[in-house]
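#structure-requests
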Amino acid sequence: MKNKWIFATIAVSLFSLSGCKSDSANDASTGTGGNPASGGSKQDSASGTGGATGSGGNAGSSGSASGGGSPGSGGKVGTGGSSSGGGSAGSDASASRGGSVGNGGTGNGGITGNGGGVGNDGSIAGDAGVGSGGAGGISSTTATGGALGSGGSIGTGGATNPGMDAGPVGSVHWTAMTPPDNSDAFFSIAGASAQDFWVAAPAALSHWDGSAWTTSQVPGSFPSLATNVSNDVWAAGMNQSLRWNGTTWTPVTCPSDVGFLNGIFARSGTDAWAVGSGGTLTGTDSYIVIHWDGAAWTDATTAAGDQLNGVWSSAANDVWTVGNAGSILHFDGTTWSASPSQTSAALHAVWGSGKNDVWAMGDNGTILHWDGTAWNLSLGAAGYTLRGVWGASKEDVWAVGDNGTIQHWNGTAWSKSSSGTAVPLRGVWGASGTNVWIVGDGKTILKMQ
């Protein structure tokens, strides 16, 4: 069972819930919900501006970074320097496959980080000056625009946006956003638009309306989210599910054999799927798949075997679910059947753009692709477990995982994107190919820039 379930046990005991009973709705602040293509999977990555020896810390110094330049230009590993408001990130560094990253000095409260790597295009990570940083401190609970410096949670130092390490999306940077102040970890993310999405944390579900967070306290841990439309959002967790109707979260009764629901996906108000373990919280004795038909959850299939962790559907007759020990099951509208995965690694998340294009992510950087005929192994981030996957199209797919791993598929190859953090990243979702969000441990919420 995953470590996140520890939160679940504590939270549920506090609220004295059992099973998936239809208790009275938990009052939640008004917000709006999400859509079917965004069934989420389950750090602020502040970094000092750093720079080379002698250029990293003097107040007002800006030491531009080049692709591996000499000391003073951001290329070599810096040793910090005296505290300052942060030097400006260098502009338009020469092209390189990656100058060495400065370790960064701390500046006016900014947390020391690893800086941004130089991408293939040579642009410095973040490309923007840090200055004296975010007006909001760690205690800020309302984001006023997203980037640090406008309500950020990283003190007065701000942070340089980390960029791509290599590959065709070298101009993409990730900015650490001010998180809702309700948890040390976020498990998943899903929504309907850039101004309407949810993130899940232990005992709390938080909604972003484009300018601020609103948090609903909930009885238990619900590590998986799925959205149909803005007023139809699902959260799944230990022995239970919740549904958002645009005003409140309401418990929805689950079959009695449900143990823990690890993944959920909704195509419509009458067609949603949830998967997990059956009977116990160990997840080792059986797996379970349940289906929502618009009126109730019912067992779709359950059997001895390893727990299931993720689910995705392109149509009523095309449903995929993945789980431990390389388990992959497929539903053709009539029958559930096992599909050979070519791996024994635990699989945590699944997403596709269509029937002949489905991705599954798992332990040790495992990436599997379904081409309509078979599952094939694809090159991944060796050594680091991948926990979430989402795509805007067949040629634009993102996967996230442990050690701050972000991987991008451009239709031809996978490349690594620098997150600026080493914490586990657990969920990824986007409103479009140019508006993508990532959540993880350490109150991490990252936004594509």
